[in-house]
Design brief:
The protein is about 45% helix and about 10% strand. Among the domains are: about 90 residues, Glutamyl-trna Synthetase, Domain 2 (Glutamyl-tRNA Synthetase, domain 2, Orthogonal Bundle); about 140 residues, Arc Repressor Mutant, subunit A (Orthogonal Bundle). Helix 9 packs across helix 20. The longest helix has 16 residues. Helix 1 links the parallel strand 1 and strand 2. The protein is built from 21 helices and nine strands.
Length: about 500
């Protein structure tokens, strides 16, 4: 048997360090067994998936040195490797399950689903909807079909309680309650598959032998196991990796830790160091050394050495490790080349000089004027925001609204950023200047700088958002209660 593993990110936002983490372990496992590592793009969420996000995934994984044997950009005999290009395949298999009696057509409306869940809740049952809850009478089914009512295809799951036993390489036999498993949608009303159907079909057709994924997918394993049984296919070996955690043991999230690979690239972390650090997340070298290369890890890789305790992703420890790589692995000439490739190059100067030239009197003015654009983090304290709004609470409110707006911003060109922020200011019944005032401080650490849209365009999305999050923390942060109130206010903006 040829070992084949995969990583399957969704191109719906910034490339996540969790994707790199899974890619690293899948790649090492495949290569350690003389097998292949596949990259598949799970873009069934057509409303949120973008070509730009897909390209960022490809670029960031390649920056880390995590190349793949088959994928959307390199081809392979099991393509296409974008799920959006495999739509007809999923439809075929979904209707096969209906014909077998292992799935059914469901015409239930969102309102009916809410009522059914509430009825189960009142009866003291789980809110997992079963076929018995969802299936309509033959007459009602026919009426809705003749009216061309929208429908989905759902899988059949056991109605009764009882344990589903899932075998996991790291965790052994895991018992999961069938009572908590709902009649999962397999094919949505727009004809696109859900993750569950697409995942199983693709893994089978692409010959995936080992599924190495995060433990958040454990509760989905009974559905996947059932689908393999319905199709009569051999199920790959499962291996659920521990989740990356913040220093406070919570699940790694961008609210508490930068999660975008692009952030670490823009900050000037070395790809070798980041891969090294991710390799230490729940795994260790046989000789317990902390610093090792990707080649070292692959040569010594044994997935059974993975520890199930939640590994802590601590940026300060990553900085320490990155420092070791800088001091021990680069001579002056090599470091010079890395600095050029990172930021000290003509492309960067071309972006900054048009803004600096009109303000400079001597060449040395360039450094203090532009240092915030050439830095990773900027020093900022609460006092620096004095006078940018009536109260600290209002400053935080404006910064949080800007952050939410920018988290959804896909076009990062200067003009698009200006229009987006201008629209937000109008929705808040503010002049743009009033919205920009705290932004100047958050982004640059100064009360004035090059224009905010220009600055953000040069800094890029990841560093801009990180500085906004830091500014909000410096100003006291947003409590859970305040966050809910602000979310309602933001959702109500025109």
């Amino acid at each position: 048997m040829t070992v084949r593993t995969r990583v399957a990110p969704s191109p719906t936002g910034d490339p996540h360090v969790g994707t790199a983490y899974m890619a690293l372990f899948n790649r090492c496992f495949a290569r350690a067994h003389g097998g292949q590592f596949i990259l598949r793009i799970e873009d069934t969420d057509q409303a949120r998936s973008t070509a730009a996000a897909e390209q960022m995934i490809l670029d960031s994984l390649r920056w880390l040195g995590l190349d793949w044997d088959e994928g959307p950009d390199v081809g392979g005999e099991h393509g296409p490797y974008r799920q959006s290009e495999r739509r007809d395949i999923y439809g075929q298999y979904a209707w096969q399950l209906v014909e077998q009696g292992d799935a059914f057509v469901c015409y239930r409306t969102p309102e009916e689903l809410d009522a059914l869940r509430e009825a189960r809740r009142e009866a003291g049952k789980s809110t997992a909807l079963k076929p018995a809850d969802l299936e309509l009478s033959a007459e009602e089914q026919a009426a809705r079909k003749s009216a061309d009512a929208p429908f989905v295809i759902r899988m059949r799951v056991p109605d009764e309680a009882g344990a589903c036993v899932v075998k996991d390489r790291l965790r052994g036999d895991i018992e999961l309650d069938w009572g908590m498993v709902d009649a999962q949608i397999l094919l949505k009303s727009d004809g696109m598959p859900t993750y569950h159907l697409a995942n199983v079909v693709d893994d089978h057709l692409m010959g995936i032998t080992h599924v190495i994924r995060g433990e958040e997918w454990l509760n989905s394993a009974p559905k996947h196991q059932l689908l393999y049984q319905y199709f009569g296919w051999e199920m790959p070996e499962l291996c659920h990796m521990p989740l990356l955690r913040n220093p406070d043991k919570s699940k790694l999230s961008k609210r508490k830790n930068p999660t975008s690979i692009l952030y670490y690239e823009r900050m000037g972390f070395l790809p070798e160091a980041l891969v090294n650090y991710l390799g230490r997340m729940g795994w260790s070298m046989p000789d317990e050394r902390e610093k090792f290369s990707l080649d070292d890890m692959q040569a010594a890789f044994d997935i059974d050495r993975v520890s199930l305790g939640g590994p802590i992703f601590d940026v300060e420890k990553l900085k320490w490790l990155n420092g070791l790589w800088l001091r021990e692995n680069f001579d002056t000439e090599q470091l010079k080349e890395r600095l050029k490739a990172w930021l000290w190059n003509d492309a960067t100067l071309d972006k900054i000089l048009p803004h600096a030239q009109g303000r400079m009197e001597v060449l040395s003015d360039f450094v203090p004027m532009s240092s915030y654009l050439l830095s990773g983090e900027v020093a900022v304290d609460a006092a620096a925001f004095d006078g940018t709004a009536e109260t600290t609470e209002e400053i935080v409110r404006r910064l949080q609204f800007v952050l939410w707006r920018l988290e959804a911003q896909q076009d990062w060109e200067r003009g698009a950023l200006f229009e987006s922020l201008k629209q937000l200011a109008e929705s808040l019944e503010l002049k743009p200047k009033a919205l920009f005032a705290p932004l100047f401080v958050a982004v640059s650490g100064k009360s004035s700088a090059y224009s905010i849209p220009d600055s953000m365009s040069i800094l890029g999305p990841d560093l801009t958002r990180a500085r906004l999050r830091n500014a909000i923390v410096v100003l006291g942060g947003v409590s859970k209660k305040a966050a809910k109130r602000l979310e309602k206010e933001y959702a109500a903006l025109s």
